[in-house]
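Intended use. Records such as the MmgE/PrpD family protein entry shown here are meant for training and evaluating sequence-to-structure methods. They are not intended to support clinical decisions.
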Amino acid sequence: MNSTDITRRLACFVVRSEPEDIPDAVQHEACRAILNWLGCAIGGAGHDTVRFAAQALQPFFGPAQAQVLGRPERADILHAALLNGIASHVLDFDDTHLRAIHPSAPVLPALLALAEWRGLSGRDLVHAFVLGVEVEERVGLSVFPEHYDRGYHITGTAGVFGAAAAAGKLLGLDEQRMTWALGIAATQSAGLREMFGSMCKSLHPGKAAQNGLSAALMAERGFTSAAAAIEGKRGFAHVLSTRFDPAVITDGLGEGWELSRNMYKPFACGLVVHAAITGCLELREAHGLRGPEIAVIAARVNPLVPELTGKPEPRTGLESKFSIFHAMAIAILDGAAGEAQFSAEAANRPAAVALRRRVEITADPTIGKLESHVRIELTDGRVLERHVPHALGTLERPMSDRDLEAKFRGLCAERFAEDRIAAMIEACWSIRAAADAGALARLAAG
């Protein structure tokens, strides 16, 4: 095995890992991620995106092997992984790594469906999840940011590797089959940033989950792939990027854990807008702002922010999640930025339309990606300012376990009674002790 044998080295790492290798703090972070992801999946289950996908695909469902979360349908594990992946990302409320990847949405749908079908333990699911996140993050970061800058949605393109590795671990693949699984995943890597603001954005992690799961199942049966699927001359890294750094994948593998850099969103939109929202909410609270008294809302933000969220006149809920203009306006108007604030109704509310047209955004490369300077000019001439160096939900201002529970309750309140919600919360915190991890999915049957 030489220094360029990246795919096989990654496969060996996953296969040889034992649950005892994962620090308790990282395993607890996995439970936090599972709780957050499950709430997002249930909260998104009724979205038109999920409904349309389920209606289109239901005639082709196979055996009822796994639960579609928050809905009455059961499906074969591949369709369940797809729909649960879509649902968990459609609200743009799911977790985010320090860099750019949403780690849970591509991996957990594959794992939970497989665990429910095979009756696998929560201990094994948590272990496989940590490994899957490690794989997707290292593969993705090895081509970041150039890969992302070229227009690939890295959650989809890298997420398929995490799903394949995690599912392969649950299936007990050996090193050869795990290498094949990563290769089968590599050739299915996909996702375009042009789709942001449309239903296809959440399709990316859904397909990553489905394709990664199928890759592991096919490899288990002996389906082969190229040995150097990641690092080969015409492999994933060199085809989809011109700045591949293999050391990002191999250096310190097993010594630190990317899940430790996970972040959770208090607001239902892209994390890069969170600092601007935080500034608006803090100024609203401090000065009793409600909208009519405002002449201008200005913000200095990193250039990435208007690049990702520069839609000035969003018309749909999905588009509004990619509009910093709408996000700042609605935060002032409602004093909140949950899913209700990023609905089609909110996007077209006359007061929101009027206020967002008074929002001015300045791109400043000296501002951090998760930082913002908010300046509000009032009609009486007063000027209010707030510097937000770290947005709520970032590693510097993290959501607590109790915050995540409150978020979960809010996402599930329309679909479940409080006793069921409490049971799901407890099941997430105690999943490492569960003999049957699939019981969590069945609790979430709509």
